[in-house]
Write a structure and sequence with these properties.
Elements: E1 8-13, E2 18-23, H1 25-35, E3 40-43, E4 52-54, E5 64-68, E6 76-81, E7 86-91, H2 95-116, E8 120-129, E9 132-137, H3 144-153, E10 157-161, E11 164-169, E12 176-179, E13 185-188, H4 189-196, H5 198-207, H6 217-222, E14 229-232, H7 234-241, E15 245-246, E16 248-251, E17 253-259, E18 267-270, H8 273-281, H9 303-312, E19 316-321, H10 326-340, E20 353-354
Parallel strand pairs: 2-4, 4-7, 9-17, 17-19
Antiparallel strand pairs: 1-2, 1-3, 5-6, 6-7, 8-9, 8-10, 8-11, 11-12, 12-16, 13-14, 15-20, 18-19
Helix pairs in contact: 1-2, 3-10, 4-5, 8-9
Length: about 375
């Protein structure tokens, strides 16, 4: 058996926490590319007492097994030493899955810290569309990814996140900041066909590097995912759409999305103030993570309630659109919002966008 490569220690920082990372340098370099612009990775051990994510080191006896088995992916196995706040990656082996496993665990640790600090997690994308921060709310297959990618591709928007934004009301209670996280974009294959054409879409798929893409085809073959799906890392998204990826943005309006069954069902409508809270609550996430909610995430008292109140005070709309006509529908939504949502005067620090880290030399494409 080949010896494990040497490991180094690193610190991973977000807007809410700093944690430790121990792994071979090539894995740390890959994590740094995948985590940007949301998390930063720097040499040196994490703060004393912080959670650590570790690969290439044997866990101690008594470490508790944990498993993440996402639909269509191979199972990822960990061992957790709760006493020493350390999570060890176990399998699958190989640099690509080790990288993905450590990134997922680190993200879960930081999102749990955000939850403890009172951030509210919403099943929504967040874009800056023509200068407005728009939360696009909806469950799976509501058309969030298609609308986000279409708006970015046509030059009017910057993506902050695609699926599960974290939100917090600022101390004055009147403004809400949305923060993105380093999570791959799950995109329907027919969305890629719609945006790029069949031939270019096939080329895009051949260059994607998320290891789960090797097995996600089974979901379409089994009928679980009718249209097929692929996972795009943020840096791949930035390169594909020739755009920066935003780290955070102020939220100026909320749009509840749905795909229309026929052209007659399309359109934008105001949501009256009395109906906003119930509509929003349907998409508030009970847990900060899909997996690995093992780090403590109970929020401090009152903070999520303040954010809910601030969100329900924002201009709120429903928008049903036709999938096949997404480019025209984006323009229609933008025009409606321009007429109904006041353009905010933004201090420089409100627009915290930064480019996703580019692929380094030797990056797998």
């Amino acid at each position: 058996m080949a010896p494990n490569p040497p490991t180094h220690r690193y610190t991973v920082r977000s807007q809410v926490a700093a944690t430790g990372l121990t792994c071979p340098p090539p894995v740390a370099e890959h994590i740094a590319r995948l985590a940007g612009p949301y998390l930063s990775v720097e040499p040196g051990p994490g703060p004393a007492g912080s959670w650590q994510a570790v690969a290439g080191v044997e866990p101690p006896p008594g470490a508790v097994p944990e498993e993440v088995a996402a639909l269509g992916e191979v199972a990822v196995r960990y061992a957790v030493d709760h006493a020493h706040r350390t999570l060890y990656h176990r399998t699958p082996h190989g640099e690509d899955w080790t990288t993905q496993s450590l990134l997922r665990a680190t993200r879960a640790i930081h999102r749990s810290a955000a939850s403890r600090q009172g951030m509210l997690f919403l099943h929504a994308g967040l874009v800056e569309l023509e200068g407005l921060g728009i939360a696009l709310v909806g469950g799976s297959r509501a058309g969030k990814t298609t609308l986000v990618m279409t708006s970015v591709l046509h030059g009017g928007a910057t993506m902050v996140c695609n699926d599960d934004v974290s939100l917090s009301a600022e101390p004055d209670g009147g403004r809400v900041l949305g923060v993105g996280w380093p999570r791959s974009v799950s995109v329907r294959l027919d969305t890629l066909d719609l945006l790029f054409g069949r031939e270019k879409a096939q080329g895009v798929l051949s260059r994607l590097t998320h290891p789960a893409n090797r097995t996600l085809g089974s979901l379409r073959a089994s009928g679980v995912e009718e249209h097929g799906t692929a996972l795009i890392y943020p840096w791949e998204y930035a390169a594909l759409l020739d755009t920066p990826v935003g780290r955070s943005a102020r939220v100026d309006a909320i749009v509840h999305l749905g795909l229309a069954d026929s052209p007659s069902d399309t359109g934008v409508a105001d949501v009256p103030p009395a109906a906003r809270a119930d509509l929003l609550e349907r998409h508030v996430l009970d847990l900060p993570n899909k997996h690995l909610n093992i780090f403590g995430h109970a929020p401090r008292q009152g903070a999520p309630a303040r954010t809910r109140e601030a969100l329900t005070a924002l201009p709120t709309f429903t928008f049903r659109y036709a999938f096949a006509d997404a480019p025209r529908e984006v323009a229609r939504l933008a025009a409606h919002l321009r007429g109904r949502v006041p353009a905010p005067a933004r201090p420089a620090q409100d627009r915290l966008t930064a480019p996703a880290a580019p692929a380094g030399r030797g990056e797998r494409r």
